[in-house]
Amino acid sequence: MGKIIGLQQLVRHRRRLRRQGKIVVFTNGTFDIIHRGHVEYLTKAKGLGEILIVGLNTDASVRRIKGMNRPINAAVDRSKVLAALAPVDFVCFFGETTPHRIIAQLIPDVLVKGADWSPDTIVGRDIVEEHGGTTKTIRLTSGCSTTEVIERVLKAYRSSRNKKSRMTSRHKNVH
C-alpha cells in the first residue's frame, strides 16, 4: 500500500490501526507550496501520535477556499511532495470545502490544526472529542506561509525582470 490512498481504503486501514492500539493523528490543508513551516508543522503533528494522516484539498476545493489563482501546484504534485515527507504516513484527498466527512469516517485520536485556528472553529473537533479523542493546535513558524512565499517569488521575479529590461534597453542604446 502506498502513502496516497483513497478514503475507503484508509478507513479499512484505520480500523486495523485502532485494533493495534496505534494513536492516529489527522490534519488537513491545501499544502500548495511546501515550505519550512509546513515541514515543522507536520513534524510536530506526527509527534502527537504514531500515524499521521493528511487530508489534502483537491484543486477544486482549493479554488473555492483560496480563489481562482490557486492552487499553484496540482493536487497530484502536492500529494507526492507530502507523501515524500518523513512525518507523513498517509495522504487522502477530499473535495469538500471542509474535512468534516473524512474526519467523521476516520475518527482520529488526535485532530490537529495550526494555532491560527481557534479551537472552537476547528472542523471535526466535536466528532473527535465525542469519541474520546483530543484536538490540538500547533504554533506556526513565523514568516513561513504559502502566501508569503508567493509574494517573495513575485517580488524577486519583478525585480529580476526590471533589471533585465533596463540592461536590454542600455544594450540597445550602445549600438
Would you summarize the structure shown here?
The protein has 175 residues and is of the alpha/beta class. The chain contains seven helices and five strands, in the order H-E-H-E-H-H-E-H-E-H-E-H.
**Structural class, please?**
alpha/beta
| Domain module tally | 2
Strand order of the largest sheet: 3-2-1-4-5
How many DSSP helices? 7
- The percentage of residues in β strands lies in 15-25%
Low-confidence stretches: none
CATH architecture of the largest domain: 3-Layer(aba) Sandwich
The whole-number mean of residue pLDDT values reads: 91
Coarse morphology: elongated
CATH fold field value of the largest domain: Rossmann fold
CATH superfamily of the largest domain: HUPs
**Radius of gyration using CA atoms only:** 20 Å
**Which sheet architecture does the biggest sheet show?**
5 strands, parallel
Element-by-element helix/strand order: HEHEHHEHEHEH
Terminal-residue CA separation: 64 Å
Work out the helicity level.
40-55%
CATH class of the largest domain: Alpha Beta
Annotation, overall tally of beta strands: 5
Labels describing this entry:
single chain, 175 residues, alpha/beta, Rossmann fold, 7 helices
Q: Can you tell me about this structure?
A:
- With 175 residues, the chain is α/β, with parallel strands linked by helices.
- The protein folds into 2 domains: 7-140, HUPs (Rossmann fold); 145-175.
- 48% of the residues lie in helices and 16% in strands.
- It contains 7 helices and 5 strands, in the order H-E-H-E-H-H-E-H-E-H-E-H.
- It has a 5-stranded parallel β-sheet, with helices on both faces.
- The longest helix is centred in the last third of the chain and has 29 residues, at 146-174.
- It starts with 6 loop residues before the first helix and ends with a helix.
- The model has no long low-confidence stretch (mean pLDDT 91).
